[in-house]
Design goal:
The chain has about 350 residues and is an alpha/beta fold. Helix content is about 30%, strand content about 20%. GO terms for molecular function: ATP binding; ATP hydrolysis activity.
């Protein structure tokens, strides 16, 4: 049994324009101690799927289908008190912006100590000592004195270290990281990622890592889910995804990454933009932007299949290292097949096309 199993999860938001199905029937699992990345463009559903794990979908959003099984317990059937007990103890989250994750009117030490007291039967003094230990562990200098300082008295990188200390204070089994280094400069980003990896290994914590940075994912994760328009379009180990991507969307993402020694005048781009999820395209949701699309792609929704065998398989049914893709190339429907030697095209400065 995997640590976490998400099956056919559906999350909707009710807006004036209509119902937005932000997460549309995704399934995946996370093994104990694993580093799983969830990647895709903004609006793909990565953050919504992550918030659902902790029951943090608020109005006008609603989880309308599926199951989230953590240690074989369906989180969606938990009461509010059970969810409060779960959050911060067994599952914790590191948010993108530490300023919004920290309460500005309480000292950082008291906020971490409160999280410890909420889940552990300890004295105030023991919670304080544990907090100082954590602050030292994440690299906050003079932690004993700075226990009483407020969030605004720390730099952005230090604030994120404090959020990590709070998230790991009860040694959770699963840590959900929602682009935790987006607001940081490159040097601090590397330090934070190294710290996360080191502490997670120490506490034997699995990580669901939400990111748009494919370089970070390549260095830090074991497997990758690629999301597009609320759906999973590819799942693979890191090596398989980077050396042999199967879905045209993933190929487009890879082609857009700048590389050392790259002599292209312009980076490749994926034409168009992500679809409106109030009224998504029929068939494959990527087909309006796909350079390889055929007529069948506009009418048939491709299932996730094993890219090697063409056998339909959900991520929960397939072997953890199986390479899955939702593309008609692997269902045997496409007539011409895909030629990934042709890079996804984008317009050049003169309005023409460049490879």
């Amino acid at each position: 049994m995997a640590l976490l199993e998400v099956e056919d999860l559906v999350v909707q938001f009710y807006t004036e324009d209509g119902v937005v199905r932000a997460v549309d029937g995704i399934s995946y699992e996370i093994e104990r101690g694993e580093r799983l990345a969830v990647v895709g463009e903004s609006g793909a559903g990565k953050t919504v799927a992550s918030l659902a794990l902790l029951g943090l979908i608020d109005e006008p959003g609603e989880i309308v289908g599926g199951e989230i099984r953590f240690r074989d317990r369906n989180i969606l059937e938990c009461s509010d008190s059970e969810l409060r007990s779960l959050r911060g103890d067994e599952i914790a989250m590191v948010f993108q912006d530490p300023e919004t994750a920290l309460n500005p009117v309480y000292s950082v030490g008291e906020q971490i100590a409160e999280a410890i007291r909420a889940h552990r039967d300890v004295t105030d003094e023991r919670a304080r000592r544990r907090t100082v230990e954590l602050l030292e562990r994440v690299g906050i200098p003079d932690a004993e004195r700075r226990y009483a300082d407020y969030p605004h008295e720390f730099s952005g990188g230090q604030q994120q270290r404090i959020v990590i200390a709070m998230a790991l204070s009860c040694e959770p089994d699963l840590l959900v990281c929602d682009e935790p280094t987006t607001a940081l400069d490159v040097t601090i980003e590397a330090q934070i990622l190294e710290l996360l990896e080191e502490l997670a290994a120490e506490f034997e914590t699995a990580i669901q890592f939400v990111s748009h940075d494919l370089g970070v994912v390549a260095e830090r994760c074991d497997r990758v889910l690629v999301m597009y328009a609320g759906q999973i379009v590819e799942r693979a180990t890191v090596d398989d995804l980077y050396y042999d991507p199967k879905h045209p969307y993933t190929v487009g993402l890879m082609a857009s990454i700048p590389r050392f020694g790259d002599d292209r005048d312009r980076l490749a781009t994926i034409p168009g933009s992500a679809p409106d999820l109030v009224d998504p395209p029929t068939g494959c949701r990527f087909h309006p932007r796909c350079p390889y699309a055929e007529s069948c792609c506009a009418t048939r929704d491709p299932p996730l299949v094993d890219a090697e065998t063409g056998t339909a398989a959900t991520p929960l049914e397939a072997a953890p290292d199986a390479h899955l893709a939702a593309c008609h190339e692997y269902t045997g429907v496409l007539e011409d097949g895909l030629d990934y030697d042709v890079v996804v095209r984008g317009e050049d400065g003169d309005g023409g096309e460049s490879e």
